[in-house]
Amino acid sequence: MARRKDKLDELVALLKEQAPGAVCEGFVSDTTPDNMESAFKSVQEHPSFSGLRLKAAVFNIKSPSRMPYAEETYNRFTEYMTMYVGGAFQFSKLATQRFWQDHGESSLSEGAHEKKGTLIFTGVTGAIKCNPNFAAYGAARAGVRQLAQSMARELSEKGLHVAHTIANGKIVADGDSDEVKSGRAMSAEAAGRVYLQLVQQDPCLWTHELDLRPAQEKF
């Protein structure tokens, strides 16, 4: 899912080229409740995914905002909270409903030892510490992190793995580029492997938060 159809089509084409035979479809949506609900419905009804159960869902949006505090407005501040925190809530709500539908709601203590799914929220360092001129952005990022923590504490016993990642630094598709080899940028492949490891974790050991960055990224 993505807001811009042109970028989404490019990504789908690239993934199909890199992984021939892979099932990959794109669905346009922003973080508004109605559009996201429509996108989730389209995913569930798409023939490419017939008979498949949802195993993982990743929430990842990025719209950084730099604004001096004296110039910040209530409307602009709350707009960011709605886009990030409201969007994360709606996405997680729809994903969780699908996890329960596909895997059931019995808790691990009731003998349902199967993992119900993995829900990952992608964040940045601003979720933990906020720089000057980023009040709205930092508050929104922190809100998503708190949502992830609350969900993890409440839903882990039901078999739902909730994780929050801090991903700072440039991410590029070319894993053989000089900036990747020298640690100036992350490769998309490397980031994907880390996310896949989260999805593959069993209930005996779950990671809740990860800090990801290339070697030369300052922090």
Report on the structure:
This protein is α/β, with parallel strands linked by helices and 219 residues long. Helices cover 43% and strands 12% of the residues. A 4-stranded parallel beta sheet has the order 1-2-3-6, with helices on both faces. It has a two-stranded parallel ribbon with strand order 4-5. α2 runs parallel beside α3 (74-103) and α3 runs parallel beside α4 (135-155). The protein is globular.
Keyphrases for this structure?
219 residues; alpha/beta; Rossmann fold; 2 domains; four-stranded parallel beta sheet; two-stranded parallel ribbon; 6 helices
List the helices and strands and how they pair.
Blueprint: H1 5-18, H2 33-45, E1 56-59, H3 74-103, E2 117-123, H4 135-155, E3 160-167, E4 171-172, H5 178-181, E5 186-187, H6 188-200, E6 209-212
Parallel strand pairs: 1-2, 2-3, 3-6, 4-5
Concise overview:
This protein is α/β, with parallel strands linked by helices.
Order of helices and strands: HHEHEHEEHEHE
Total tally of structural domains: 2
CATH class of the largest domain: Alpha Beta
| CATH T-level topology of the largest domain | Rossmann fold
Percent helix among the residues?
Answer: 40-55%
Oligomer: single chain
CATH architecture level-2 label of the largest domain: 3-Layer(aba) Sandwich
CATH homologous superfamily placement of the largest domain:
NAD(P)-binding Rossmann-like Domain
First-residue to last-residue Cα separation: 30 Å
Structural class: alpha/beta
Question: How much strand content do the residues show?
Answer: 5-15%
> How many helical elements?
6
